[in-house]
Amino acid sequence: MATGRTHRPATRSRGIPEATVARLPLYLRALTALSERSVPTVSSEELAAAAGVNSAKLRKDFSYLGSYGTRGVGYDVEYLVYQISRELGLTQDWPVVIVGIGNLGAALANYGGFASRGFRVAALIDADPAMAGTPVAGMPVQHTDELEKIISDNGVSIGVISTPAGAAQQVCERLVAAGVTSILNFAPTVLSVPEGVDVRKVDLSIELQILAFHEQRKAGEEAAADGVVPPAAAKQQRKGPDGDVPAVMPA
């Protein structure tokens, strides 16, 4: 089976926009669910609704893949699963290392979705000598001293960083120096990488803060509709010589 070290996805060379690439996994998840229910074909409207996008955007995205469906029939589910999987590089083996086996790293190691989507966890790595040899998800944790050899021996091109923020940049630099060209970063920090290295950042606290913003806005809209000043808004008001003014004035 081919490995991630010797093959790269074809998406960039074929000129598929990054926004489209970001939506392909959404389509694949929806299509996989349909396939598991033995649904043979699906319309663009049905698939778009399942993926959470509009049907015009879906049809445009699929046009980059050369897939236009059949009028009155829709898209062949199994063929689209194969086509998108191939475009995302999921028809080959991608060895992955996870660096930082704390609570989050251990949870990632135990996640069964990696293997089913073409990602093989090749090694679990941690800087704590006491962790060395400890089994996690059926694999022994290895010390960071072995990182470069592990990457070389397994042909790893994708690294997952789940270390504390303070250690993430150093780990990143070692991964890149060893030949890793794609990094999934769970550490709450921004990584600096050279040209040609792709980083995807997953920050759960930021996502929660965004949800808190929307919740606060919805509460404010509901309160305004009822003619009530929300407590948060009331705190932002103070009395001035000309009446209520914002607590913080624009510069």
Can you tell me about this structure?
This protein is of the alpha/beta class. Helix content is 43%, strand content 18%. It has helices at 18-36, 44-51, 55-65, 77-87, 103-109, 113-116, 147-154, 165-177, 204-225, 231-235; strands at residues 41-42, 75-76, 94-99, 119-126, 135-136, 139-143, 158-161, 182-185, 198-201, 237-240, 243-246. Strands 5-6-4-3-7-8-9 form a 7-stranded mixed beta sheet, sandwiched between helices. Helix 1 (18-36) crosses helix 2 (44-51). Mean pLDDT is 86; it is low at 1-13 and 244-251.
Summarize the structure.
This protein has 251 residues and is of the alpha/beta class. Helices cover 43% and strands 18% of the residues.
- Beta-strand content: 15-25%
Radius of gyration: 24 Å
Low-confidence stretches: 1-13, 244-251
Please state the average pLDDT score.
Answer: 86
Largest sheet: 7 strands, mixed
| Structural class determined from secondary elements | alpha/beta
Helical percentage: 40-55%
